[in-house]
Amino acid sequence: MRRRSSGHWDESDVRIRANKRGSRPRTKDRPAHEDAVIGRVVTVDRGRYTVDLGSEGPGTEVTAVRAKDLRRVPVVVGDLVGLVGDTSGAEGSLARLVRIEDRATVLRRSADDTDPVERVVVANAGQLIIVVAAANPTPRTGFIDRSIVAAYDAGLEPVLCVTKTDLGDAAPLRDYYAETSLRILSSSPERPEEAAAPAGRHESLPLDPTTVETMRSLLDGHVSVFLGHSGVGKSTLVNALAGTSRSTGGVNEVTGRGRHTSSSALAISPSWGSVGTWVVDTPGVRSFGLAHVPKESIVEAFEDLAPGYADCPKGCTHAADAAGCGIQRLVDSGHAGPYGAQRLESLRRLLGVAAEDGLDQMKELGTTT
Ligand SMILES: Nc1nc2c(ncn2[C@@H]2O[C@H](COP(=O)(O)OP(=O)(O)OP(=O)(O)O)[C@@H](O)[C@H]2O)c(=O)[nH]1
Ligand SMILES: [Zn+2]
Q1: Taking the alpha carbons of 253, 257, 263, 269 in that order, is the dihedral positive or negative?
Q2: For bias kind Basic and acidic residues, which ranges apply (predicted)?
């Protein structure tokens, strides 16, 4: 089920759109750059963009910098851009990025206490592959729920991928999401005894052939972004699926974060994919800020609870003490499944009306004391 994007654009997006002039008539002072070649941004590194020019599978990779009038415009991995100048991709060559195409989707994270800056994770993605480990690190449904909300809000289809099934069981997660339409896949390494080898090595774990087959058919023809906490096995998975060799790391015992962590997003066009297949690996995230998502979109993303929403009184906060809350009644009636109460608790946390979060609750209610 795909939801409509709520269509929220921030100022920078507006600027991006204002700067797109591919379809506009040429004016004296503003060249249309009709000669620009179009490619996809595959990495971003301190103002330098690697742009893949292949229209059918991996093509020439060109390094580019933004043209003067685009210098303040953010360009992210997944963006489709127009290049002029030296687009040969020869060693040391540098092209000029003169145009950014309208984005079909924008996946963003709001600033929160784990990250002070709002970030656009990726542009033009169609699927969000939420990667969690069955164990080491322990999966957090709060993080998964946040990611699902962000995906639906941005118009991406969320898919849950459970890794490290040699170390833990994916069944509890399947049970928790049983009343939703969330697609859940688990990836298992081919040789579990190998998988338990010391962390920190730089090679990929082989995935069993069924996992590879299932994942590839899921990814084929889509731009899919892999997102998850550090150390859950995103790079391992992407390497196994895309045939790349990005370095992978172990979970740091002290910080609980991954070592040798991927530090920026990377889009890969796998050789087995049909036209338009892109796999985007992203750096590990701690959380997923949702301040940019309207409250109704948060409720709608809990599709197992959303039917109760229609019965809520106008302006219902859905908090535990909200009189006549339809979602609460749905859960009490048992129609939201055995995990209904936990799902509602998670929804309340995302809405900032969970019982233990008194401060947020006051904000939500508009209390001015
Ligand atoms: N036992 C087991 N270990 C795995 C599996 N998948 C990945 N690992 C290991 O988990 C560690 C972290 O894997 P990465 O692929 O680097 O994790 P990541 O999510 O990309 O981490 P960041 O780059 O920090 O975001 C590595 O030591 C991997 O070898 C698995 O299925 N089973
Ligand atoms: Zn309600």
Answers
A1: positive
A2: 7-16, 190-205
Q: Where are the alpha helices (DSSP H) in 156-315?
A: 171-176, 192-195, 209-219, 234-242, 295-301, 306-309
Residue nearest to atom 30 of ligand 1 (CA): 164
pTM recorded for the entire structure? 0.81
CB 63 within 8 A of CB 91: no
Residues with CB under 5 A from ligand 2 (ion): 312, 316, 318, 325, 327
Examine the pLDDT at 155 and tell me if it is beyond 60: yes
195 C-beta closer than 6 A to ligand 1 = yes
234 lines ligand 1 (CB under 6 A): yes
Q: What is the rounded CA–CA span in Å between residue 244 and residue 325? A: 50
Question: CA Rg, the chain, in Å?
Answer: 22
Residue range 58-77, pLDDT digits in tens: 688 999 999 999 998 889 99
User: Which class for 11: exposed (0-12), middle (13-18), buried (19 or more C-beta within 10 A)?
Assistant: exposed
Rounded to an integer, what distance in angstroms lies between the CA atom of residue 155 and that of residue 12? 19
> To test ligand 1's pocket by mutation, which of 143, 207, 215, 236 has the most ligand atoms within 8 angstroms of CB?
236
CB 252 within 8 A of CB 236: no
Question: Which secondary-structure segment (H or E) carries 13?
Answer: helix 11-19
**CB of 137 closer than 6 A to ligand 1?**
no
Which domains are assigned to the chain? 11-100 (2.40.50.140), 106-281 (3.40.50.300), 295-365 (no CATH)
250 CA distance to ligand 1 middle (Å): 6
Residue of 298 and 248 predicted with greater confidence: 298
Q: Which residues pair with 158 in a beta bridge?
A: 128
